[in-house]
């Protein structure tokens, strides 16, 4: 019993998050340690907060879920995260794992270069675009407010003089009512 409680309240140091990442979603990587050593796959997800990546076809575990028509007895094979130090980028020329260094093109763009072959490893093109590119050609709909109306100033602020006059009028009425009151001595 005491061992279980000590596990619940034990101190676990916070994971130090890496600042510089060479691996992004869509990269082809190879596992360099663990039960799936030597397997290659593409990065499905990068979890920078935990320094882990999810690679397709690697680190499968069986997850038990509620029974469905589509599921086989409620068991699902699912990829689980690997620590980023356990994977390396694959050289596009040789097809083997490689270390990388940063280089710059003539335009000043930063690129990844394989140390073994010197080949440039391009960053994968994502289907999702940046916010600006997604909203570049959007037309105003019937429920959108035009910019000239949205930017028009309609609030003038509080009229302090009117509020003060109204309060003074209210005080004068209360004083008048109080003057008519007669209190027994």
Automatic annotation (TrEMBL):
A Gene Ontology CC term for this entry? Answer: ribonucleoprotein complex
GO annotation, biological process: translation
**InterPro entries annotated for this entry?**
KOW (IPR005824), Rib_uL2_dom2 (IPR014722), Ribosomal_uL24 (IPR003256), Ribosomal_uL24_C (IPR057264), Ribosomal_uL24_CS (IPR005825), Ribosomal_uL24_KOW (IPR041988), Translation_prot_SH3-like_sf (IPR008991)
> What SUPFAM superfamilies does this protein map onto?
Translation proteins SH3-like domain
Q: Which Pfam families does the protein's record reference?
A: KOW, ribosomal_L24
Query: Tell me, how does this one assemble?
Result: Part of the 50S ribosomal subunit.
Protein family per UniProt: Belongs to the universal ribosomal protein uL24 family.
- The protein's name in its UniProt record: Large ribosomal subunit protein uL24c
């Amino acid at each position: 019993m005491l061992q279980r409680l000590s596990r619940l309240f034990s101190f676990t140091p916070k994971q130090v998050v890496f600042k510089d990442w060479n691996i992004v979603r869509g990269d082809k990587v190879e596992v360099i340690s663990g039960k799936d050593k030597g397997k290659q796959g593409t990065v499905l997800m990068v979890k920078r907060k935990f320094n882990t990546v999810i690679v397709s076809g690697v680190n499968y575990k069986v997850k038990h879920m509620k029974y469905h028509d589509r599921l086989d007895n409620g068991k699902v094979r699912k990829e689980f995260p690997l620590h980023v130090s356990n994977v390396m980028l694959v050289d596009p020329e040789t097809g083997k794992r490689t270390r990388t260094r940063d280089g710059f093109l003539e335009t000043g763009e930063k690129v990844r270069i394989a140390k073994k072959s010197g080949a440039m490893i391009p960053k994968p093109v994502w289907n999702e675009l940046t916010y600006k590119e997604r909203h570049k050609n959007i037309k105003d709909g019937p429920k959108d407010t035009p910019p000239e109306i949205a930017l028009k100033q309609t609030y003038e602020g509080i009229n302090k003089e009117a509020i003060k006059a109204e309060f003074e009028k209210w005080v004068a009425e209360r004083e008048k009512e109080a003057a008519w009151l007669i209190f027994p001595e």
